[in-house]
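Q: Please design a sequence for this.
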């Protein structure tokens, strides 16, 4: 039996796996046969869910679901790696899907494929992208899609009190779903005042802190704080040495890791011009 705190992505998809695979593939004839293990040697993440699906037209195939709190520049490469690993392990065609929960910074463009060319050889991996903030909240109730009920507040048109209350009623009406109320409360806090959220639903932070979602949010918050701090220092050094920095240079720095930013700090001190720094940044 699932624990109360078990509100990770596997738990969510397992609430209605047929409805989920039909939604992400946009094919109503597809059915879910089994949720498979998605641990591939050195890769194991709570937000990855691998579903073995079937359709009369295509037979057995895999639906690789990557639920990402926020899109990052590393996601195309990650989707390529996960798709290849899943297909190698289970010997089935793979349909990769990236579900982005919250919008990325405006300087970061979401893409739906990985492409690389090196020494005349090309590597390409397409994948479907679903941005939850672009999904109409009404779809969750009409289809229905119980796996998306906790995300209703951040869906398009889902930030109204009446819509959040409607999602809350749907969760409380089903014993299997009412454990997700804390997750609904968390996402409601993105669009409604916290006292209002506490007023209309149970806000059990003790339960939410045990979930993979909260842990990932917390870890990403710490990492983002470190990244932004190093980035600000780097921009300050560049401005002192070379004057005003082009916006596109600052935008590129926003997507770099803390480790690379720290290495770039050494370069910013050593180079003789901004152009020389940009060359190093492009490597």
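A: Design:
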């Amino acid at each position: 039996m699932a624990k109360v705190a078990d509100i990770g992505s596997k738990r969510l998809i397992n609430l209605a796996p047929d409805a989920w695979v039909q939604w992400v593939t946009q094919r109503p004839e597809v059915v879910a046969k089994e949720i498979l293990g998605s641990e591939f040697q050195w890769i194991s993440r709570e937000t990855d869910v691998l579903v073995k699906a079937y359709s009369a037209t295509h037979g057995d195939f895999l639906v690789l679901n990557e639920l990402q709190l926020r899109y990052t520049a590393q996601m195309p490469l990650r989707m390529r790696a996960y798709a290849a690993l899943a297909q190698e392990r289970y010997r089935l065609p793979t349909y990769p899907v990236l579900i982005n929960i919250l919008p990325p910074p405006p300087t970061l463009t979401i893409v739906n494929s990985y492409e690389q060319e090196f020494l005349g050889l090309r590597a390409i991996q397409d994948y479907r992208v679903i941005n939850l903030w672009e999904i109409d909240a009404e779809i969750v109730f009409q289809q229905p899609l119980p796996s998306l009920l906790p995300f209703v507040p951040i869906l398009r048109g889902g930030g109204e009190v009446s819509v959040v209350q409607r999602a809350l009623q749907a969760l409380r009406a089903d014993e299997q779903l009412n454990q997700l109320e804390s997750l609904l409360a968390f996402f409601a806090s993105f669009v409604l005042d916290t006292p209002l959220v506490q007023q209309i639903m149970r806000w059990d932070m003790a339960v939410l802190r045990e979930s993979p979602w909260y842990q990932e949010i917390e870890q990403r918050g710490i990492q983002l704080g470190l990244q932004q701090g190093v980035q600000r220092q780097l921009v300050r050094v560049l401005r002192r040495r070379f004057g005003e920095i082009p916006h596109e240079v600052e935008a590129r720095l926003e997507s770099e890791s803390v480790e690379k930013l720290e290495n770039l700090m050494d370069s910013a001190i050593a180079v003789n011009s901004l152009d020389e720094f940009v060359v190093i940044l492009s490597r």
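Q: Thanks. Anything notable?
A: The radius of gyration is 21 Å. The longest helix spans residues 212-242.
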